[in-house]
Amino acid sequence: NIVMTQSPKSMSISVGDRVTMNCKASQNVGNNIAWYQQKPGQSPKLLIYYASNRYTGVPDRFTGGGYGTDFTLTINSVQAEDAAFYYCQRIYNSPPTFGGGTKLELK
Amino acid sequence: EVQLVESGGGLVQPGASLKLSCVASGFTFSDYWMSWVRQTPGKTMEWIGDIKYDGSYTNYAPSLKNRFTISRDNAKSTLYLQMSNVRSEDTATYYCTRNRRYFDFWGPGTMVTVSS
């Protein structure tokens, strides 16, 4: 099975900063990656699919990139409401494995 | 508005069985594959399995396929997860999701705690 590894596990940044988090697949997955945001006490919400497609209603400060084994989620000008866990997921093929998550905290 | 609402969770003893339900609204349920995902207290997300839009095909995580069964009733717009012989490691929040290869809608989840 393909293993998805996210880094860093946590990060603490200031409002207005730009942040990039990483997701690495153990094998080539093409562009078959999704990113989800989970705020405290809520269920996950889809942000990005097929590596770089922003889902409906997602602010354009969220950008996904990468192909093959290395992927990134960048948030430009982080807002207070962006404090959350972020998960990547291998999609399209089975099993749709999740990464361990990155916790984004605001200073 | 798309809504998914899970129910059926609670405290259950090891070895018992439990059936979770997920009622869907706001979209044509019978047009979509659906999936179950669980999240442990430590925040680990684990895919449980999928079911085809007409219920004719299911696919499971290998470690769970002998104990978990996914089914659906399209007339009731309801997805089910039958859990058998539950173990402490099944303690988690269980989410139903709409599956378009990516999971575009998630319910609020139902918590299952396995403990004696």
Radius of gyration of chain B: 13 Å
**Structural class by SSE content of chain B:** mainly beta
Shape verdict of chain A: globular
Can you list the strand order of the major beta sheet of chain A?
Answer: 2-10-9-4-5-6
How would you name the oligomeric state of the polypeptide chains in this document? heterodimer
**Average pLDDT over all residues of chain B:** 97
Number of strands of chain A: 10
Average predicted confidence as pLDDT of chain A: 97
Order of helices and strands of chain B: EEEEEEEEEEE
The helix count of chain B comes to 0
Which sequence of SSEs, written as H and E, runs from N to C of chain A? EEEEEEEEEE
| Structural class label of chain A | mainly beta
What does this structure look like?
The complex is a heterodimer of chains A (107) and B (116). By secondary structure, chain A is mainly β. Helices cover 0% and strands 49% of the residues of chain A. Chain A is built from no helices and ten strands. In chain A, strands 2-10-9-4-5-6 form a six-stranded mixed sheet, with no helix packed on it. In chain A, strands 1-3-8-7 form a four-stranded antiparallel sheet, with no helix packed on it. The N and C termini of chain A lie far apart (37 Å). The mean pLDDT of chain A is 97. Chain B has 116 residues and is an all-beta fold. In chain B, a hairpin with a 3-residue loop joins β9 and β10. The chains are: A mainly beta (107), B mainly beta (116).
List the helices and strands and how they pair.
The complex is a heterodimer of chains A (107) and B (116).
Chain A: E1 4-7, E2 10-13, E3 19-25, E4 33-38, E5 45-49, E6 53-54, E7 62-67, E8 70-75, E9 84-90, E10 102-106
Parallel strand pairs in A: 2-10
Antiparallel strand pairs in A: 1-3, 3-8, 4-5, 4-9, 5-6, 7-8, 9-10
Chain B: E1 3-7, E2 10-12, E3 18-25, E4 33-39, E5 45-51, E6 58-60, E7 68-73, E8 78-83, E9 92-99, E10 103-106, E11 110-114
Parallel strand pairs in B: 2-11
Antiparallel strand pairs in B: 1-3, 3-8, 4-5, 4-9, 5-6, 7-8, 9-10, 9-11
